[in-house]
Amino acid sequence: MYLEFRESDVSEKTLQNHRYRLDTFIEFCEVHDIENLNELDGRDIHSYRTWRGEDIKPLTLKTHLATLRVFLEFCASIDAVEDGLREKVVLPNVSAAEESKSVQLDADRARSILDFLDEYRYASRDHIIMLILAYSGIRLGTLRALDVGDWDSKALLLKIRHRPDSGTPLKNREPAERSITVSEEYGSVIDDYIRVNRVNVTDDHGREPLISSQFGRMSEGAIRETVYRLTRPCIIDQECPHDRDLADCEATQDKQARECPSSVSPHAVRRGAITRMLRDGTPEKVVSSRSNATSDILEKHYDERSERERAEIRREFLEDSL
Which residues of the chain have pLDDT under 50? Predict the structure, then answer.
């Protein structure tokens, strides 16, 4: 009933996320013989919080419990639980440092944003920025360094080059030079952007930047603000997961987009892309080469998989190798 109620005002991906998070609550109820939500009380909520927190990180637990709060609010509106039960869902305290380290644009949100851009802003500069960052996992500075000539449409390759003398050095210099494969679907989007929507300018060094503006090569700050703007949930769902009134929320203003608690930086998009590749079973050496990060750095700063997820991927790999 809850999912049917939300179906008309959220995206399909958001609905899938809610279904996934609430499936674990259903599992908890089954394990603990809770058959009627009218009997649910604060002790059950606390038990679920402890039970769910055994397998996931505090930041992920916070997201799951926030969804449970919204679900219980709906349940109260149809007399399925007692009024005010949502207030008994205590969200875990997550330090700013931990939240900053763990925050990422997960695969479902990335796909929702790309689907939205594909439908409403196809082959726009916004579309290309999010597509390349979310698909490849490259750094913001690497994206900015790309020229039109670095795109090989026939081979479907983005060639990444270190050019410090003309204003676009790479973080790890020459060793960071590489070519990144692009799918045929996304390659068509890049072709259409260059052909139709790219601002046809050169930068101060006479180069043709792929991500361009009327002033030349787009600045890192402007690209960063674009990502903050496009990752606000209200852009896609027309709703706020933080119970803010959109008419009064300052973060709805494009220049204040980073004030939205759910908007993320380009680095969080990179972290999400790398985690997606690892969860899909892509070998670490391939991910390391593609993202220009050592295996140690991947594990320390980017790999958000649980130990159970890693074990399942190893199992699938070993079974396939027999």
Answer: 100, 321
Query: CB of 13 within 8 A of CB of 82?
Result: no
Name the residue among 309, 231, 306, 217 with its Cα closest to residue 266: 231
The closest alpha carbon to 69, from 241, 246, 245, 260, belongs to 241
**Structure confidence by residue, pLDDT tens digits, 180-196:** 999 999 999 999 999 99
Tell me the domain boundaries of the chain: 2-98
Full-model pTM: 0.67
281: which residues sit within 8 A by CB, 6+ positions away?
A: 313, 316, 317
pLDDT in tens, 140-171: 999 999 999 999 999 999 999 999 999 999 98
At a CB cut-off of 8 Å and minimum separation 6, what does 69 contact? 86, 89
Fold for the domain defined by 2-98: DNA polymerase; domain 1 (1.10.150)
CB 273 within 8 A of CB 140: no
